[in-house]
Amino acid sequence: MRRIIFIVGFLLVFQDASAQLFTKEKVPNNINNIDQKFLTWGYFLGFNQYDFKFEYNENLEDILVDKSFGFHLGLIGDMRINDYMNLRLEPGVYFTTRNIMYDESYFNGTTFSDADLLREVKSTYVHVPLLLKVSTKRINNFKPFIVGGFSAALNLSSNQDNPDDNSSGEFRMKKGTYFYEIGFGIDLYLLYFKFTPSIRGVFAINDEIVRDADPNSPWTGNVAKMQTRGIFINFTFQ
């Protein structure tokens, strides 16, 4: 009998707790009416993983890309349009490294070493996106959103103007890259600030490779187009 009374009592307490947690409206954190301000500021930091997408002139083995996680940080300027849309400028600095690995079939008829099959590409981008953020209605202390837009990036590590090419061990990329971006996230309204985790995909529009002087170069001769693509994981504080 005591067990039955205990179980019934536990179920009643659990039901009440569930109602409090999932159905009762919580007191919203105001954070000085941040969503009603025309202009707000903040900063972000996060992780990135860049990749390359290749298109080829001939059907040879794919060029492989060994990706690694990089780091980025930057500032946010947010302009309120209405309760559901914001225009955002998010300039930042992005650090990344990619290793490009060639198949031996690219060097048929030529003498090559293992070092010729690998090119390390270190990049430091000044990345400036202009984004439209479209949010849902705020639910208690969180608000999901999607975001998209276009961006331009300046590759500070570019050696576009270097007269040496891959025959001297120099893999060259263009300085400027243009992207379109799309992602999603959630605004979390904490007691003193708004914290926003988000994930975003970026896709280059222009060709970025600088071709070697030799049109039959094993490193660039078969590449019709090389474009950056990547994933950003951002943590924003406003």
UniProtKB/TrEMBL annotation:
Pfam families: OMP_b-brl_2
Keywords: Signal
UniProt-recorded name of the protein: PorT family protein
InterPro entries: Beta-barrel_OMP_2
Signal peptide residues on this chain, from the entry's feature table: 1-19
Superkingdom of the source species: Bacteria
Organism expressing this protein natively: Winogradskyella vincentii
Residue ranges annotated for the Outer membrane protein beta-barrel domain, each copy included: 37-209
